[in-house]
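Attaching the record inline, Q. Sequence:
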Amino acid sequence: MAWLLSPYSSERMIAAELRRLGWSERDLAIRRKNDPDKLAIAVRLRRETTLSIKTIAARVLMGTSNTANARLHRAMKELVTSGSGQGAKTKEYMV
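Structure, as predicted:
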């Protein structure tokens, strides 16, 4: 897995995910903070970039960093306990 270090790279990743979902930036604002697709974007950013939880929460509009951290922790824990592992893809949280 390539570690993406620049904010530009993370923005490209977000843009790609938005295109994949058929969303615009506006959709990030109008969807719920715990929307599974928003969570999938956040999980991917957390795994593949060095962005902080606070930065991810602000960019994907997931609420405060504390609530985003709890959601991400739960989602990533479910991936591991379901046997999906870090490299696998699941319907709800990974793309």
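Residues 7-81 form one domain. The longest helix spans residues 65-81.

More tomorrow.
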